[in-house]
Write a structure and sequence with these properties.
Helix content: 40-55%
CATH class of the largest domain: Alpha Beta
Strand content: 15-25%
Number of strands: 15
CATH superfamily of the largest domain: Type I PLP-dependent aspartate aminotransferase-like (Major domain)
Number of domains: 2
Number of helices: 15
Largest sheet: 7 strands, mixed
Structural class: alpha/beta
CATH architecture of the largest domain: 3-Layer(aba) Sandwich
Strand order of the largest sheet: 2-10-9-8-7-3-4
């Protein structure tokens, strides 16, 4: 399908649908008329096969207790093998109602109060909360930023592990919000440090399918790094929600290859949540994995084009703006500091540009002056956001 036809068929407006992104603007930002570029979901309908499968299930009319069928497991296993070369076993897979809920549970299960838990910042803000709310010691290592290209400071990572007796490392790849897909060399160095210092690893791979350039920057699961050398200390969390725009259906996975960690998890997870996915989440996820690849490729092409539009527009009209290299996720990380004082970023973006975004300090206290923009939206929204930023910067400089 041509991109224009795909956009016409799948792009939609979401106001007055109880959308967090669009209908909570007044509550969150004090202005219901902002252009919403924040929450990490899409302005595109799910694959039509998913809608059809849900309609058929709803027509059954009964929503009693259900089991997760073998067909769901197989659809997920086949997807991981075909898309990422990741071989999974049925017994490794557990379910949750969302990756964030699983993070909270895993931090509690894998560590004790006061234990050090390491994260790489800037990072998705629930990482901070999952550590602090469980009364663990939050340990951070700031990523290095070379004009939008982020890398890991391995020396600092090792120092933080040693100095704070870190017991758990939570990583994100592709990394939200900076858009890096960590290379196998980077992952090997990180996981080798965790092995050396007996640190367990949670790998948040919810954005795994959102590869912007699969040829040059393919995603590689932490479970397959160095031919699976580190898999016994890694628990992966992921979901179909980011890939297929299914967040409201509350369906996520945990992949736990180590039988002792599985036993530990199984013995304690009942204290936190149900361990089965919702019936509609199961139907949607299974169908998406079986039939959604072509739809996803169209979405990735749109995100890629939206990112390139921002790059070319800013290069032409505001060349000191810095967009982070976008290798994975549909989220772009914009550095405004060359034009706007960090403390004035909110006023500039909200009051002048009339945009709703996620601000940098949500991802790290050191990242005021940055904003995160969602590119999984109609290109006209991206063009409008870019023009507002460029126009407002031009007016500031007069």
């Amino acid at each position: 399908m041509e991109q224009a036809a795909f956009i016409k068929k799948y792009a939609t407006t979401r106001q007055h649908t109880d959308s967090l992104k669009w209908d909570a603007l007044q509550a969150r930002y004090g202005n219901p008329d902002l252009l919403a570029m924040w929450v990490a979901d899409m302005e595109f309908k799910v694959p039509e096969q998913v809608t059809q499968a849900l309609q058929e299930r709803v027509a059954h009319g009964i929503y009693g207790y259900s089991i997760t069928p073998d067909r769901y497991y197989q659809a997920f296993i086949d997807w991981e093998q075909a898309r990422h070369g990741l071989t999974l076993k049925h017994d490794w897979i557990r379910f949750g109602s969302g990756v964030v809920n699983s993070l909270y549970a895993l931090v509690n299960i894998l560590t004790q109060p006061g234990d050090g838990v390491l994260i790489l910042t800037p990072v998705y803000y629930p990482f901070f909360n999952a550590v602090r709310d469980n009364h663990r010691q939050l340990v951070t290592s700031e990523l290095r930023n070379d004009r939008g290209h982020y890398t890991i400071d391995f020396e600092d990572v090792e120092q933080q592990i040693k100095a704070n007796e870190v017991r758990l490392f939570i990583q994100c790849s592709p990394h939200n919000p900076v858009g890096r897909i960590w290379s196998e060399d980077e992952e090997t160095r990180l996981l080798a440090l965790c092995e050396q210092y007996h640190v367990l690893v949670i790998s948040d791979e919810i954005h795994q399918d959102l590869e912007i350039d699969r040829t040059n920057h393919p995603f590689k699961s932490a479970l397959t790094v160095a031919n699976g050398r580190f898999s016994n200390r890694v628990i992966v969390v992921n979901a179909p929600s980011k890939t297929f725009n299914l967040a409201a259906l509350l369906n996520s996975h945990l992949v736990i290859p180590n039988p002792k960690l599985r036993q530990r998890y199984d013995a304690q997870i009942g204290r936190f949540s149900q361990t089965e996915i919702s019936v509609l989440g199961q139907v949607a996820g299974q169908t998406a994995y079986e039939s959604g690849a072509a739809w996803l490729d169209q979405i990735l092409a749109i995100v890629r084009d939206n990112y390139h539009y921002l790059c070319t527009t800013f290069a032409a009209h505001a060349p000191k703006l810095v967009l982070a290299d976008l290798q994975g996720t549909y989220l772009t990380w914009l550095d405004l500091r060359a034009y706007v004082q960090p403390a004035a970023t909110k006023a500039f973006i909200q009051d002048q540009c009339q945009l709703a975004v996620d601000f940098g300090e949500c991802f790290s206290p050191d990242d005021q002056g940055f904003v995160r923009l969602n590119l999984a939206t109609n290109p006209q929204n991206v063009r409008e956001a870019a023009q507002r930023i460029v126009t407002c910067l031009s007016q500031m400089q007069k």
